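Why do we care about 3D structure at all? Because function follows from shape, and shape follows, mostly, from sequence. That is the central idea of this module. The next example makes it concrete: a single protein chain, its amino acid sequence, and then its structure expressed as tokens.
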Amino acid sequence: MEHDPFAQIRSQTAAVIPAYQDEKHIGDIVRRVRQRLDHVLVIDDGSNDQTAQRAREAGAEVIVHDQNRGKGDAIKTGLGHWLDREVTWVSLLDSDGQHLPEEIDRFIAAAASATQPSFFIGNRMSDVAAMPFIRRVVNCYMSRRISRLCGQKIPDTQCGFRMLDRQLIPELLGGGDRYDYETEVLIIASRKGYRIESVPITTVYSDQVSKIRPVRDALCFFKLMRRYRKL
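And the structure:
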């Protein structure tokens, strides 16, 4: 049997995959995550397609929201599920194919070498050729502003591929309920003394239509920034 130097961390890591209307990709994503992790949880955020069924068929545990509550709320449901269970790390990744489950190994390696409390986030900015130009510009702008609030440089604050220490979960169960939540998490972790460490990942854009609503989510972002500048 091939020796896995990170077997202990791998056995103590659980995945949370927020999903909405992702029946096309979720089964494949779950199967590939399960090749690396024993514990895989999908939060079906009020889908009216076969997302939950496809996830279960692929071997995931599934929690279904009775209505669409937003990505932030789906993540919080997933984090809360693992709070009192025998895991040390939680891996977060998207359900639409933009994150390669095989690269969970990169986060596990980073966790194995961490020497201080750390929150790991994917970094796509060394592979920007595959990133649409407008997303690249917006990402750079938002990452600069969020980095200043966090007091540390985070090259790709908009990446949803992450890994966090279970001990941080109680601090992350409040806050926003949509895409602004992923920004707020970074600010909270920073202010709790966690180092935000970037893990290089591959930039992938699938055929899925983005679920971000530019005007609404931009307003949420600026409200969030204003609120934390005052704290």
